[in-house]
Every structure is written in C-alpha cells, then in structure tokens.
UniProtKB/TrEMBL annotation:
<keyword id="KW-0808">Transferase</keyword>
<feature type="domain" description="Methyltransferase">
    <location>
        <begin position="47"/>
        <end position="135"/>
    </location>
</feature>
<dbReference type="GO" id="GO:0008168">
    <property type="term" value="F:methyltransferase activity"/>
</dbReference>
<keyword id="KW-0949">S-adenosyl-L-methionine</keyword>
<protein>
    <submittedName>
        <fullName>Class I SAM-dependent methyltransferase</fullName>
    </submittedName>
</protein>
<dbReference type="Pfam" id="PF13649">
    <property type="entry name" value="Methyltransf_25"/>
</dbReference>
<keyword id="KW-0489">Methyltransferase</keyword>
<dbReference type="InterPro" id="IPR041698">
    <property type="entry name" value="Methyltransf_25"/>
</dbReference>
<dbReference type="InterPro" id="IPR029063">
    <property type="entry name" value="SAM-dependent_MTases_sf"/>
</dbReference>
<dbReference type="GO" id="GO:0032259">
    <property type="term" value="P:methylation"/>
</dbReference>
Amino acid sequence: MTDTPPPSATSTSTWAAGDYPAMARRLTAVADRVVTAAEVADGTTLLDVGCGTGNAVLAAARRGALATGADPTPELLGLAVERARAEQLPIAWQPAAADGLRGSYDRVVTVFGAMYAPDARRAADALVRCCAPGGRIVSAAWTPDGFMAATNRAASRYLPPPPPGGQPPTRWGDLDVLRALFAPLAVSATVEQVRFEFPSPVAAAEFWVRTAGHLQAERARLIADGSWTALHHDLAAVFTEWNRSGGADIVVEAAYLLAVVDRPLN
Ligand SMILES: C[S@@+](CC[C@H](N)C(=O)[O-])C[C@H]1O[C@@H](n2cnc3c(N)ncnc32)[C@H](O)[C@@H]1O
C-alpha cells in the first residue's frame, strides 16, 4: 500500500488548524539530532526550513549558530519567535515556504519541513541554492514504510483525495528518492527512531487527531457524516498494531530518515 499525501498538508492555514505545538514538543530530540549532524560551531550560519515552532533553529542558536528560521505558517513562526525572545536568542526569520527562501548559509536543515513542499524537486533545489559551497544540508523525514506513514494511510480514508499528481511527503524519507533529488551531490543517511508514549490507544488516537491540522480541518464534515469516531478507532488500531510496550500502554517507534548532503567547495 502506498502512503498518500495529506491533501492539505501544504496549506499553511491547515498547519495552524490543530495543536501542532503539542506534537512539536514530542519531536525536540529529532531537532537536536539534526543539529548535531549539522556540526554547527560558534558563528556557523544556519537556515532551518519549515522551522514550525522552532525546535531546530533554537537548538542551533543555543549552540552558537547564527540561525535563521523559515516557515510559511505565520501562527507557527510566531510561536518560534516568542520562544526565541523568551530565551533571548538572536534568531533571524523568513516567513517563507521552501521555494521562496533567500540567502546563503553554511548549514541548511529541515526537520519534517521541506517534505511538505508541494514540489519536491523545487524544494530540493532551493535547499541546495541556499547552501553555501562547502556547506551541509541535513534533512529528517518520516520513512514511507514507518509508523507515521501507517497513521497517514489510516487517516487518508477519511480525507478528500489528494490533488492529482500529489507527491507523498514520505518520499523524502526514501534514500533512493533523495539521491535522485540531490544528484549529483552525494547523500548519506541513517534510519533513526523517535519514540512516542501514551497511556492507552484511545489517548494516543485523541492526541494524533488533536494535533493534526489536516484532520482538524475536516472535523465538522466527519462529525456530520458520523465518521469522526471511526477515524479515532482506526488510528487507535494502528497504535495497537505497532505497540511494543507489551502492556496496555502505548510505546511506538516512528522511523525517520536522517540524510546528510555535503556541498563541495566548487
Ligand atoms: C511537521 S511540521 C515541522 C515543524 C518543525 N520543523 C518541527 O520539527 O516541529 C511541518 C512544517 O512545515 C511547514 N511547511 C509547510 N509547507 C511548507 C513548504 N512548502 N516549505 C517549507 N515548509 C513548509 C509547516 O508550516 C510546518 O511548520
């Protein structure tokens, strides 16, 4: 079965429709991992593409990088700005999608961000364009055969069909696809895991639906046609299927591809 793209995944209003910040708080370990792979030092310039509420760009700034966060969703970018202000981190901002990025940086990172651009080729070209010669691109993206893709498949049955020609975001989690997107640059990658824990399958499904803007955007319709409960039920079943706690609580590992692309000096 193939992973289908959330139909509205690239609409910025959709990203603001759910409680995405609650999900982002569970993804800070991935941001730290990406910034570690980026190997930033004091004064390294870094661009975080699709920075959302700022996990990676803040982590980079804490390590001394001259960091810039870019995101097309004003509500999420606004939260990132507030977090940076609270920590007194001097971060620059670009209210932009991947294909509208400006500037040249030593490091370009993206944590589940560029994968949601509607045109993967344009997004990859933009990351390369913004990466200075001798610089490095680091991407984290959910894998096509992992837990996140399984939840997307379950939810897609309740969503409008994806637009014609729509590309699944998880193609950024496929090393062969990334190699084609970034050729002739070499891509090295590892598959890593992020762990999610919940007290029960029901609690897990509720969290998933509450934090997913593309599901919240369909809430009224799904309640009206009686399928809102079935959506929760199907998602709870996915959590149960992938559960490795051995008990009634939920522990799942969601795989992502951590990819590193080094841009030669010339
Ligand atoms: C799953 S969130 C990841 C946010 C953040 N990087 C994190 O780790 O929590 C996806 C982010 O991609 C952003 N996004 C959506 N379309 C985009 C595009 N075309 N280019 C760049 N970012 C995009 C959304 O606004 C959202 O903030």
